[in-house]
Amino acid sequence: MLARKIAIGAIFCVCVLAIAGTARAQEIKINKWPDDVPCDALKKNPDGSWTLTKVIIVGNARIENVTTGSGRDVQIWDQKCGNNPPKQ
User: Fold this and answer.
1) pTM of the shown model
2) Where do runs of H (alpha helix) occur along 1-88?
3) Which residues pair with 44 in a beta bridge?
4) Which residues does 29 contact at the CB level (< 8 Å), separation at least 6?
5) Where are the domains of the chain?
6) What is the pLDDT of residue 73?
């Protein structure tokens, strides 16, 4: 009985650690916005805007779920990641 409780506790710990590790893996630390944002953290939308698909950490700022359709960000990401919207 005690061995079963220990086994269940160990399985629970492994699951919690796996989930926490997955969440951290989606965070990307960069030094300069928007230049250092990797293309795999962006999605080009049909209207030409860009959406972050991962959490970006710049200094102490946490940036997520952002869509932008104009300005310097778009110009840099168009050059860096391609300026053609995805085919539907």
Assistant:
1) 0.66
2) 2-25, 72-81
3) 50
4) 57, 58
5) 27-81
6) 93
